[in-house]
Amino acid sequence: MAKFSGAFDLKEPPPWQNCCYCSGSPASSTSTSSSASTTVATSPNPRQQQQLQIQQSQQLLSFKSPADFVRHLRQHHCTVEGGSYVCRYGYNEVCASLPLDGVSDRDYEMHVNRCHVNQQQKESQIKWSVFSAAQNLPAVLNDPSRSKQTHFFTKKWGDAFVEHQSIGTSPQLPDIKWDHFDFYLKRIGKRYRVHNRIAKTALPSSSSSQGQQPVVSDRLPNGATANLKDIPEVFLKHNLELHSPASFAAVFPDIGNDGEQAKQSSRLLQEKLSHYLDIVEVLIAKQVAEKSSAFFHAMTSQDAIMEQMREATALVSRLRSRLKLIDDTIIRESLQIISLERVRSNNNIVLERLKLMSTVHQTQPMIQLLLSTQDYVAALDLISTTQEILSAELVGVHCFRHLPSQLTEMERLIDKMLTTDFERYSTSDLNRPFAGENRLVEKVLDEDKLICIISGLLRKRNLDFIDTYKQEAITTVRAIVKQMVIEVIASGDAEVCLTGAGEEAQSLSLSEWIVLLETATVTLMRLLRRVRSVHDVMQQTADASAGKITDDVSFIDTEAFLSAEDYEIVKTKLANLLQSVCNYCHERCANLVSNQSLEKSSVSADQIAKLTEIVERFSDGCEEVCGIQSVPLKLALRAQGTRYAQKFHSERKSKMALLLDSERWKQAEVPAEFQKMVESISKGVFLWNKSSEMNGGTPVSSPPPQAVLMVDGQPFALVGAALLLVQIVSEYCRCASQLPVIATQLARNVIDLLRTFNSRSCQLVLGAGALHVAGLKTITSGNLALVSRALQLVLWLLPHVKRHFQSLEPNGTSTGSTTILTGYDSIEKDFASHIKEIENKVLAIVCDLVTNQLSNWDARPPVPSQPFRNISRQFVKLHEAIAPILPEKQVATIYRVVHKNFKDKLREQLLRNNITNNGGPQHGTVVSELTFYMETLRTLKAMPLEELRDETLDDIWLK
């Protein structure tokens, strides 16, 4: 095993070098004991005895060879039992390798050499220390650069646990060679050689035996050798104390004995002391002789040193004289000036402190004076400043020991005064009567006093005064509303009771409610303006207290004392003040509007319009005051409007259902009022008055009714239900114009009404429901044409209605507007689909008749045949039924489809009868029939003449 740097050998001594289970062998004990005894006898020194004992213990535990160790084991750690040897070398005299069995002499020697000598030498134990750590096991196991090894955990731990890798040179370190040490070796080498030469000269070599240090000695006059070791140790101590009994007994051992022996002991002691003195003198002489050169050198340099001392003494004397001169002429006067300046400064400090004490003494009268003028901020500032002066500059002044507590109590009193004054001011300001006229700006009561109170509260950081004012304002609103309700109730004759909130629990007339609401909104609006005025004063005071720029002359010289955090809190609370008061006013008014008594009253559109005007005026005023829109009152108005719209719609819808059920589906006359109404609608104006017009106070008779309704120059033959539908839709539009708050709901109601008209008319006509409801015998083409024309009138009306409701929307792109537009588009598609169904129904009736007649027709005389006569007769009846009702374009479309269907059926019949265009008799009969058919169509003029030429019938013949 290699050794580490610093000459550390980690291997323990060989196991046979000493015995681990006993102190030593008997063989070595005798020799060591004898040597120890001789040593003790030779030297009486205790230190030498201690060293000899250490050497003895080391010799007892060591053996010079393995044979001595084996001999020791046989003598002390082996027992013979019946001729067999049992090894007892181990703990508790039990060998771990051969615990119980006895073996022969030869086997015992093999066992000792194998288990206790040789094997332990092969596997010698290593005494571990911090220098034994060769690898870091976690670092080796976590090394990502190493691959998986199968023999990793089978290797023996040590510096060879992992493979050694060569570490390259670092670019950060220079390449050191022997040449770099040449200069150092040359410089140190000279000094080292000189040192060795001096050491050899100063310390002559002397023989030393057995590792002991050489002793400087010489011969005494009697020939003995002088040695310091011969002198007892007690004489060599630094602090020899003869008064100590122990020391005295060691120096004079037999001083207390009597007789001849005591005299001899005294003589012997004197000789010993003389001998010790001679040794010391000889050694001193020897030492002086060895250092004689140094003594001579010191004596020769003594004269030079004395000369230098005389020169230094003269220089010091001259320096002291000059320093004394400078001290007398410059330093003392300057120091005196500094001392006088310090005295003057101290006197000034005392004077300033006395002036300050005089000023502080006048604090309480000044505070009383400021409070009498309501300058609370200055009083609080004075208290704060005085407190700071007392705690910083007048600490320990006995006459002011009670002033801080007095100022604290006075500050609390000012805080209570401010709170009381503000509450008193709020109550008196909010409850004072309003001016006769409705002014837009309310004048603040005692503005200067209010500014002083608010400034004092802000200076004290008592920000709860805003919440106090808000609660007082809310209480005032509640009292005003309750007082007005009481006045309204007192004006009536009925006995009613009031709830705790002030609303009336019994029913009032709608006119009384409107008057009550109008009066309440006007009064509350004045109160809100008064609150806004106080709010503005509070805001300006807070701005000035926070150092914000303000244009008011009253705040020009105001000192900023409000922190930014407190200013933000005040600003937030002031904004919340206006919003809370406005919202509460709206809630109180909303409770009046949404009272259950309104549900029992019959509300008209004019009354709802009046309510809307009151609410809008109050909402606009509140928005002007607080800057936000309040919702409760508008929601209450919307609820009343919704209730009115539902009632309005249910009445019109029931009326329309009754009209449709009683409708006979006959053409009705059109009064002049309806004609004027349609003309107004075509201009986008839904205004119509059924009463007769007045000309200079004289009623003018209305024109006679007309057979048809002229719409944009086109005649509309209509039933009475269609005319009333237009009138009802106009009422919806007029109501929406009068009440924009329910315009969206009315727009939805119009869609529902039109959808009801469409579905019910379809059930009565196409579904033949009128046969049972109205008692009709049959549903004719004229009935279908009238329904179609009524639906066409609604299609004409729809864009005007849609534009009207869209114009009433405050934001045309809102979700409600989009929903309404989608609903109108849907109902328009439903009406167009219904018209198409009616047209298909008419076509189906005619086409079925044509098919039935042509199925029985044959090309035989007489001409025209009866089937063709019947077809012509039905065409004439159809034209007589629909021509006065439907427009010519639609009639032409119907007859075009009928004519096409006739040609298709005739072609099939000709194919069935095998009649071709060959000029035969049957061909001539067919041509005569067709001539009669075409003359009928030309006579009816149902289609354009260019479509009724004879050439148009050529496609009935097969090519």
Automatic annotation (TrEMBL):
Recite the UniProt keywords alphabetically: Coiled coil, Golgi apparatus, Protein transport, Transport
The UniProt regions of compositional bias labelled Low complexity, in chain numbering, are: 204-217
Q: Which InterPro entries match?
A: Vps54, Vps54_C, VPS54_N
Which residue intervals define the domain Vacuolar protein sorting-associated protein 54 N-terminal in the entry?
270-424
Q: Where is this region: Disordered?
A: 202-221
Where in the cell is the protein located? Answer: Golgi apparatus, trans-Golgi network
Q: Which ranges carry the Vacuolar protein sorting-associated protein 54 C-terminal domain?
A: 714-848
- Mind telling me which PANTHER family this protein's record contains? VACUOLAR PROTEIN SORTING 54, VACUOLAR PROTEIN SORTING-ASSOCIATED PROTEIN 54
* Family under the similarity heading: Belongs to the VPS54 family.
Name under which the protein is recorded? Vacuolar protein sorting-associated protein 54
From which source organism is this entry?
Aedes albopictus
Which lineage ranks, top first, belong to the organism behind this chain? Eukaryota, Metazoa, Ecdysozoa, Arthropoda, Hexapoda
